[in-house]
Amino acid sequence: MSSIQRTRKLALVDCNSFYVSCERLFNPKIRRKPVVVLSNNDGCIISRSNEAKALGIKMGEPYFKAKDIIIKNKVEVFSSNYSLYGDLSRRVMRTLKRFNSEMEVYSIDEAFLDLSNFPDQDVEKIGKEIRETVLQWTGIPTSVGIAKTKTLSKIANHIAKKKISGITSLIGIENIDPILEKININDVWGVGKQLTKFYQKNGIYNAKQLKNKSNTWIKKSSNVLSSRTAMELRGIPCIGLETTTAKRKSCVVSRSFGKRIEKFQELKEAVVNYCLNASEKIRSESLVAKAITVFIRTSPFQRGFGYYSNSNAVDFPIATNNSIEIVKTAVSILDNIFKNGYQYQKAGVMLTGLCNDDGKKNLFSSEKDEIINNLMRSIDNTNYRYGRSTLSLASAGVQKKWNMKREYSSKIDTADFYSLPKIKAI
DNA sequence: TCTGGGGTCCTAGGACCC
DNA sequence: TCTGGGGTCCTAGGACCC
After folding, report:
1. What is the pTM of this model?
2. Which nucleotide is nearest to A299 (CA to C1')?
3. Cα A10 from Cα A350, distance rounded (Å)
4. Does domain A250-396 have CATH number 3.30.1490.20?
5. Which of A255, A319, A408, A418 is the right S-S partner for A79, CB 3.0 to 4.6 Å?
6. For residue A193, is pLDDT > 90?
């Protein structure tokens, strides 16, 4: 064997406080200040700068609960701006792809890269180079964790987040038990709230203890996913790299309302809008839906008004992505589940059983379908060019009293040339 | 007053058939 | 009429992820 070691090596590159970093990119004045970004409707805190974390503001905490700390410490607050984050995410991913085309975009702010082709002793250097390049080209700071399996890369990344260098590699370490011992069981990828409770009850408090637990016990008392996690902790890959983006199986559009809604008419407007959104989305991916679910509910937190939640699913006679048909079906479902006298807080539609739109005509297709398809296509093109909902259906309404609250939007639009930041060339 | 949204996968249990 | 078990398929709900 040659002296160059080539084992399986996966890097997890994760953007630091991604949404906050995006806002900071366009607003240098908040670089060193505590910053948080809120979820839709300004409901919860979903991204925090290190300064904000240090103040004790928790992930997912409702905004109103953290308001005291926020005001007292002059924390900068932003409503979320997903088109900005999506755009910057694509730039980061494009940059990463230069290092290896064997890459899995795992979420908006993280990606797995296969570094197996590099010699073992070089990976830390490569990781450093990745960080520097992404920072220089996009302005987004990242952390890099490298290990033999996805689960271990996650752990390496978790450690890297706390280091100034921003990089941790577990490659070439004989015994990683002392490292795993310091990782709380709930910080292991795939171990959520319920599993944490279960493991702790059985004396498992850290990653090392789970790693050394027998597989049969884990499989028997939990499930295959948990045993996969344990195997991955042992350095045995069980979760593959998904380099091609699989077609999705469902498409959900749902929102909480800016204000509570009581009237059927307003609820209907919201549902129609969600349908238009969802059908446009699946059309853009050349998919058709076999079924649709509509759900409505009142706030689970509001006491004294009575809680009501209901949903219903209906199969389409033929899988479709036609807005008009989808809207019509959704409204009839809403008609069935709507009850008077409740203050609705949220509604949503879910298109399920998605499959490829082969465009084939079937027994029931007619010339009318052809006309409808052309209509959908021109609606999508127009909306793409002139902004969403330039063309819509009358039932979608114009007032939209139910629209989301977004009080703290930075209103940055990356399509606006003049607001683009200047990035240093190399 | 104010508590996000969008996904995937697994399992248990019921319906149905032989 | 009563009795039994095993297989498959579907769905709802739960758990997890970011």
Report:
1. 0.92
2. B3
3. 34
4. no
5. A408
6. yes
